[in-house]
Design a protein that fits this description.
The chain has seven helices and six strands. By secondary structure, it is of the alpha+beta class. The longest helix has 18 residues, at about 70-90. About 35% of the residues are buried.
């Protein structure tokens, strides 16, 4: 895998800027069998109170598939949703098209009833160094078996919705698929950071978070 700055390079905000610039460049070159992705480690939240990507670069579908169990299934549901919405031709504009595609994917995943495969799930929208993160980390240290914070209701104030969350069998790795259908929208750094914080906050066993931008192969 490529994309990680060499030791001794920029740190802190400068490092984040490097990762963001690199991700944006790679995302703009996404191909049908390669996609831009970032990986975070939970230790960044536990020890520093903020997130810095562990790695950023392009992955082949085979590489994503090797880590994210339901990547292919989710991509297949996305393709099916795009095909259905396109065929029905009942959308007002590109944004409406995207909303309808998201809804189709959501319904298909929720029909599976798998608690480790979630769609349009709401989580707390946490700012960098939010004191709730530090407090949750402290409580987990004293009581590792405690229940995680409840996830907010859909659309609740101070929440963010994640398109698709795919928690792996080991419980320590979570893959997040951010679905995009419009060419003008790219997965932004602020959204990636908020996603990573929310996953860590609500899924206490998480050690690694992989955020992947997912697009239909043909649209």
């Amino acid at each position: 895998m490529r994309g990680r700055p060499a030791p001794g390079g920029p740190k802190g905000g400068e490092l984040v800027s490097v990762f963001l610039t690199l991700f944006a460049a790679l995302s703009g070159r996404n191909q049908t069998n390669r996609t831009a992705a970032l990986a975070f480690r939970a230790s960044e939240f536990e020890t520093q109170g903020h997130e810095t990507p562990e790695w950023v670069g392009q992955l082949t579908e085979r590489e994503v598939r090797a880590t994210c169990d339901r990547y292919d299934q989710t991509q297949g549901l996305l393709e099916g949703a795009v095909k259905k919405v396109t065929k029905e031709n009942d959308y007002a504009n590109e944004a409406d098209f995207g909303n309808k595609v998201h809804k189709e994917v959501e319904l298909a995943i929720k029909a599976k009833g798998n608690p480790d495969w979630l769609a349009e799930e709401s989580m707390q929208k946490l700012a960098e160094e939010d004191p709730r993160i530090a407090e949750e980390t402290r409580l987990r240290g004293t009581d590792p078996g405690r229940r995680p914070p409840e996830r907010p209701n859909p659309g609740a104030k101070g929440s963010i919705r994640i398109d698709v969350l795919d928690r792996q069998a080991n419980g320590s790795t979570v893959c997040v698929y951010d679905i995009k259908t419009g060419a003008q929208h790219r997965l932004s750094w602020p959204r990636m950071a908020v996603i990573a914080r929310g996953v860590y906050f609500h899924f206490p066993q998480t050690q690694s978070i992989i955020v992947v931008e997912m697009r239909p192969k043909q649209h």
